[in-house]
């Protein structure tokens, strides 16, 4: 059983790693959007490869949202932040849950 200080350290490290990924991916996404435009990825069903990537990302992000929602319900926390994150997913993709995990203090990043 990990000690309380180990748990706090692992949560802090997880938040740092999520924040680093968030910063790097935000910079990359901003660059791509600047170069190609916001709607350049649409339609996502041009061929089988783009369809597969789009469906894969949709499934992965929905799993993240489901796990966040379940965690909030289990701990009897209000679930509206998860729904806001879901709206962010529609607009900004995986940047929304990355930002959510980096800044929202009530999310358990470890078991």
State which percent range the strand residues make up: under 5%
Shape: globular
Helix content: over 70%
Mean pLDDT over all positions: 84
Rounded Rg:
16 Å
N/C terminus separation: 11 Å
Give the SSE order as H and E letters. Answer: HHHH
Query: Can you count the helices?
Result: 4
Given helix and strand content, the structural type is mainly alpha
Q: Spans of 5+ residues with little confidence (pLDDT < 50)?
A: none
- How can the largest sheet be summarized? none
Count of DSSP strands:
0
What report would you give on this structure?
With 111 residues, this protein is an all-alpha fold. The protein is built from four helices and no strands. Helix 1 packs antiparallel against helix 4 and helix 2 packs antiparallel against helix 3.
List keywords for this structure.
single chain, 111 residues, mainly alpha, 4 helices, 74% helix
